[in-house]
Amino acid sequence: MMHIHAALIVAMLSFLNSSIEMQTFDREVGSLVQQLEQLYSAGVDVDPLVRDLDRAVKLYENGHRDSAITILKEIRERIELLKSRAPEIALRKRIALGIEVGALASIPLLVYFVLPRIYLLLWYRARRKWLVERARR
Amino acid sequence: MILNEEVFAVILALTIVSSVFGIAMLLRPSTVEPFTAIGLLDENCKIGYYPKYVVPGQNLTLCLFVDNHLGKPMYWKIVYRIGNSSTIPTNTTPSPEPAIEEWRGVLPDKGNTTFKIRIPIAIPKDLANAKRIALIFELWIYSPEQGRWIYSGRWTHLYVEVVRR
């Protein structure tokens, strides 16, 4: 009877321990996801980091905890590196967006000023060899 | 063909409308209405041949689909439970039945994943004599701000008949 009780207690302790470990892991992943959210909203491409984070979660679930923790550490380092570059990336994205908007906005102006000239140019070129004869009245 | 004033005005109007539409597409927020989705697929990861009968203790192969349109990366988990018509989840509350298995993952914004699962038909004691059970899959999302899992209000379930030997 004592042995059964002891086995039960060991099993419960082991379950509690793994549950606490899982909670710690969730907190760790959650904190990284939060930082990725901030980078993403600043315009940084975080997809490769998200893929690696997903891989770490799958590894942890399959019992490869050390590999998962190693990947989490790498991701944390890469996030720190990206954080320092985030303002520059955000500025570049804004400039690119401004150029795109400017290019689109200038199309109607170009059509207004350039299209009649191009049309006339083509019209004259197409009739380059025409001979003009004065009509007799 | 003559480029008279009317033709030119039409071309110009079309250009202005296209340009405004293009600018609006560029400046609109990437996610207008955030949402997530969960789907249950058959063992070939297609909609169709779902099992109708199960034997307690057997293992079933199915596929799950998770989709993220929250406008940000998402740390998700799917919780598998067995219940009946009175214990299936609602939009606000998860099922009260005990969790049997969980699957976790991280998805980027506008990302989705489909994966195979092998689930045990471990019927809880309170449903020991039930003829019809529901295989319940709930989508939970981790909230880093609150430091805990939050039920997303999304779930999917499959009713199956229990065959006892």
Description:
The complex is a heterodimer of chains A (137) and B (165). Chain A has 137 residues and is mainly alpha-helical. Chain A is 85% helix and 0% strand. Chain A contains 3 helices and no strands. Chain A has helices at 2-41, 47-61, 65-126. The longest helix of chain A has 62 residues, at 65-126. Chain B is mainly β and 165 residues long. Chain B has 1 helix and 8 strands, in the order αββββββββ. Chain B has one helix at 5-27, and strands spanning 35-41, 53-54, 59-69, 74-83, 101-107, 112-120, 132-143, 148-162. The longest helix of chain B has 23 residues, at 5-27. Chain B starts with a helix and ends with a strand.
Task: Briefly characterize the structure.
By secondary structure, chain A is mostly helical. Chain A is 85% helix and 0% strand.
What secondary-structure arrangement, pairings included, does this model have?
The complex is a heterodimer of chains A (137) and B (165).
Chain A (H helix, E strand, L loop, with lengths): L1 H40 L5 H15 L3 H62 L11
Chain B lengths: L4 H23 L7 E7 L11 E2 L4 E11 L4 E10 L17 E7 L4 E9 L11 E12 L4 E15 L3
Parallel strand pairs in B: 2-8
Antiparallel strand pairs in B: 1-3, 3-6, 4-5, 4-7, 7-8
Relative helix content of chain B: 10-25%
Content-based structural category of chain B: mainly beta
Oligomer: heterodimer
Principal-axis shape of chain A equals rod-shaped
Please state the average pLDDT score of chain A. Answer: 88
Please provide the ordered H/E string of secondary-structure elements of chain B: HEEEEEEEE
Question: Spans of chain A of 5+ residues with little confidence (pLDDT < 50)?
Answer: none
Strand residue content of chain A:
under 5%
The low-pLDDT segments of chain B are none
Distance between the termini of chain A: 130 Å
- Write down the overall geometry of chain B: elongated
Distance N to C terminus of chain B? 85 Å
Radius of gyration of chain B: 24 Å
The ordered string of helix (H) and strand (E) elements of chain A is: HHH
Number of helices of chain B: 1
Share of helix of chain A, binned: over 70%
Tally of DSSP β-strands of chain B:
8
